[in-house]
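Minutes, project huddle
Topic: does the predicted pose make sense with AR6 bound?
PN asked that the exact inputs be recorded in the minutes so nobody has to dig through chat later. Recorded below.
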Amino acid sequence: MNELRIEVIQGDITKLKVDAIVNAANSSLMGGGGVDGAIHRAAGPKLKEECIKIVMKSGNCRTGEAVITGGCNLLSKYVIHTVGPVYKDGMSKESELLGNAYKNSLRLGVENKIKSIAFPNISTGIFGYPKKPAAEIAVSTVLEFLRKDDSIEKVIFVCFDYENFNIYKSILDKITE
Ligand code: AR6
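Predicted holo structure (tokens), as shared on screen:
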């Protein structure tokens, strides 16, 4: 069952030992606040160096797309940097772009043979995406991906705040009922 490959926890994503953690980055990939700042601090300066190389070679990472670097000082082997949408009015393709951020992160993970991946609640902090619809998109996009892919063994949604944790738990409980 695909649902059993999905887990939700409350905590700090930088502490996880998984094949890849996903970063809610911005297009410049130069770090920032929120989870992006936490990941760069925990990974050390080498992470930014790798990001600079990517931007120099391929340009900025567009909204909904994803790139991969090593995990540097983190316990995870890789960091997948994706850029979620800034929430405007809900009519500016935000849901499609948020789904793309999850999908493209998973695709990149599969290409790099990862088995376990942890996601933060992309776009729901500084980018202002309402938490419940964001969680629904995250869960449905991951479920749809796992239906077609059997290489990823575990997807962990890491919620920093209790509100998001509760939202994810109730969505997942409904699916597995
Ligand atoms: N572990 C897990 N989740 C965390 C952590 C952590 N250590 N720290 C924060 N969160 P945000 P966004 C949660 O603002 O909305 C940056 O400046 C947080 O509570 O980090 O996609 C980038 O450079 C929230 O639920 O990302 C971009 O400019 C979630 O992570 C911009 O923010 C996402 O919040 C991206 O904004």
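Observations noted during the meeting:
- Helices lie at 34-43, 46-58, 94-111, 131-148, 162-176.
- The chain has five helices and six strands.
No decisions taken; revisit at the next huddle.
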